[in-house]
Write a structure and sequence with these properties.
Largest sheet: 6 strands, parallel
Order of helices and strands: EHEHEHEHEHHEHHEHEHEHE
Strand content: 15-25%
CATH topology of the largest domain: Rossmann fold
Helix content: 40-55%
Number of domains: 2
Distance between the termini: 25 Å
Number of helices: 11
Strand order of the largest sheet: 4-3-1-2-9-10
Number of strands: 10
Radius of gyration: 17 Å
Structural class: alpha/beta
């Protein structure tokens, strides 16, 4: 199975930040990405619906013969926690790797968490952090408009709309004197410069996509599943809504224009 692809899914496009990081860490690996763009967002759905969607997404990736599945979605990772036990291949979400990195990074024991409403309401990051160090103070804030900003191209740190929304959501966290902030949705790294500018350079931002990519690489190494082929890996993308819209918006996440292998599927 070592030459099989790594499967990554998200409710939409945010998981592409994890794809970008995974390509950096493991450039020889093949990747199959599924974005459930027809049913995005998951963040305001019921727990039952999120679990059902996550199971369907994983099932599609398994049909492609993947050797590992990554739920590059803070909402799924926080709500569909039992998914791991149902899969025949290694699995990771974004919560545990990201919480680990935040605990290692904090100096004053004050960590902020931002994510979708479902992620924040699940308390998943807070529970994961406290399980590693119960003395840490965790402050949370849901930021649902960040997803809309990113997917509509409002990403510049100089954009006044971006600045206003960042300030509105993060003012309370800033006042708590946090020194570490978890970007608990894979959309959020796209506006990380605006977030960093507002919070200041003393606050360490933890990118859930990056930390999950590093963790997945370690799991594959431990299980002897790394691809030994020295050629650059290929990425194939599947979406449940229009291909053209995906290509246009995916350029923001991947930082490139030549996105060719995109296919529409219906679950």
């Amino acid at each position: 199975m070592s030459d099989s692809a790594i499967g990554i899914f998200d409710s939409g496009l945010g998981g592409l930040t994890a794809v970008k990081e995974l390509v950096k860490v493991l450039p020889n690996e093949n990747i199959v990405y599924f974005g459930d763009t027809a049913r995005v967002p998951y963040g305001n759905r019921s727990k039952k619906t999120i679990i059902k969607y996550a199971e369907q997404d994983a099932s599609f990736l398994l049909s492609k013969g993947v050797k590992m599945i990554i739920a590059a979605c803070g909402t799924v990772s926080s709500v569909a926690t039992g998914l791991r036990d149902t899969l025949p291949v290694p699995f990771t979400g974004v919560v545990d790797p990201t919480a680990d990195a935040a605990v290692r990074a904090t100096r004053n024991g004050k960590i902020g968490v931002i994510g979708t409403s479902a992620t924040v309401n699940s308390q998943s990051y807070k529970k994961a952090i406290l399980s590693k160090n119960e003395s840490i103070k965790v402050y949370q804030q849901d930021c649902p408009l960040f997803v809309s900003l990113v997917e509509n191209g409002f990403i510049s740190e100089e954009d006044q709309i971006v600045q206003l929304v960042v300030e509105r959501y993060l003012e309370k966290l800033k006042n708590q004197n946090i020194d570490t902030l978890i970007l608990g949705c894979t959309h959020f790294p796209i506006i990380s410069r605006a977030i960093q500018n507002y919070l200041g350079s003393s606050v360490t931002l933890i990118d859930s996509g990056k930390e999950t990519a590093l963790y997945a690489a370690e799991i594959l190494k431990q299980k002897n599943l790394l691809n030994n082929d020295k050629a650059p890996g290929e990425c194939i993308y599947y979406v449940s809504d229009t291909v053209d819209d995906f290509r246009r918006t995916a350029q923001i996440f991947l930082g490139k224009n030549d996105i060719e292998d995109v296919y529409h599927i219906t679950l």
